[in-house]
Amino acid sequence: MSKSFLGCFILWILFQLLIEVNCQMTPFKPNVLYKHTATFVDNKLYILGGKDINENYVGKEFFYLDVSVPFNTQNLLWQDLSNINMLPPHSSAASVKGGVNNDTLFLYGGITNDQTMALVYTFDPQSNSWAIPKIAGVNPFRKARLTGVNHDGKMYLWSGTTILDNYVFVNDMLILDTINLSWGKGSLVNAPTPRGHYGAALLPNNNIIYIGGYDDITVGFNDNLYINKGNALTLIEVYMYDIMNDNWSTKMTTGNIPSNRADFSTVLGLDGQRIIIFGGGFINPGYLDTTLYELDLINFVWTIPKVTGKIPTPRILHKANVIGKYMVISFGYGYDQSIESDILLLDISNNEEYVWTTTFDPTIPNNTNNTTSTSSSSSNSSNNTGAIVGSLFGGILFSFGVYLLYKWNKNKKKQKDEGYGQEERTISTTKNIHNYVNNNYNNHEITQVPINGNSTNNKPIIIPTPVINKNCGQEIIHDENTTNHEPIIPAPEVNRNYNHGEVTSTLDNDKLQIFKDEILQAVDQKLKNFNNSNITRNDES
């Protein structure tokens, strides 16, 4: 494989990896607009079901927003899980966080055209998998347009409409035990009239509050969300279901009572002493503010809270969850998606002044008493990091590949240069042998040179003198005073001819080549230490 081909191949691989990373960074743009569920589980806000702007089911879209990291509502990085969604297209279902460890998404009911849709589904965020649980007890009929509220692993499902018989409003309290997977029912004594698209929230005193809604399936709204057909229910009365005692009560409210309304969202304030509602369709536009209201749970007084920041357009059929210090509002009908974000953030940490903001700060811990999202909400209460990590990974990978290619070329050049230098040293050593032999020809010098300059080697190398006299075949005696203490070794008997100082013998070519290589190595080392070595000379002539 040539160097140029290898370099092109490496760059092609890196380019493909970089494209893959960038493709994964492409933001997911959901089609959902309203009638979805929004369930907060393990620092993720899961969005499922609903309808698009054309009032069609959104298909199998399933995605989440990671709220464990800061984000800006103008740059939402949704994480798409649609490829693992097993549910048929649907809308107006109810969901909560429940299960043995209170970390499982439970989805109940909803409207669908697919008759194979199960009544209840569960989603495990740890394994990213859906399942249809087997639930003991009487299997109830499917309902829609209701809100699920979780308390100690039990999902309370009051009223709503059937999906048959022209969506009849039903008055019952279904209770799904999400831990033991069994059905139950609650009392209906003194229960309010049946309704749908109401507001609901779990209170610290183990009561569920139910507010507003409508009991007329023909209700309709104009572009300003005023009810122009049918009617919504009053907010003068609110209704309390006592979970522990299984009974109902009614509370009368005062103050700036909102007009009759439905399709709004309801959350519990962080101090557990107030209910906050947002948006909804209403029948009386005469109020100063028809977007945000607050109900004091001590005296049941309605007020219009002080709010700063840019007030958003009212919405209906949206969802709201309390996450950290924020009321997080997702999607809905009535706003322009090209102008306003699909997510609204209301900072409710200061009861004296709420703030509409576009930045989410996750450093405030979640208030476990205020994770119920209702009315239009569904549960108890890229990412820029993924995109940044992906970009950094792609850049680092590309840079690393370029670096490897550079090092490879550099090493090849270094090896070539070192080979050239070694060749020069070999030539120089050969010349040194030639000069050394010529210079010492008249001195008849015989030198015993240890291999690698170390006397501990078993077999020293002998450099013989030219044949001058009768003693040329004598033993070669190494002076005992030599610092290396080499042994006395007789010189081999060979026929020596000198041609410009080169040594030849009658040995075969292979042995001769080895012998030459050993001489070159030994002499090269010896010459380096020449000034510090003692050389024994034979004085006989």
From TrEMBL:
Give the coiled coil ranges.
none
What domain of life does the native source organism fall in?
A: Eukaryota
Transmembrane stretches in the record are 386-406
Answer yes or no on keyword rRNA-binding.
no
| Signal sequence coordinates | 1-23
Which keywords, in A-to-Z order, does the entry hold?
Answer: Kelch repeat, Membrane, Repeat, Signal, Transmembrane, Transmembrane helix
Check the record and name the InterPro entries matching this protein.
Answer: Gal_Oxase/kelch_b-propeller, Kelch-typ_b-propeller
Q: What is this protein called?
A: Galactose oxidase
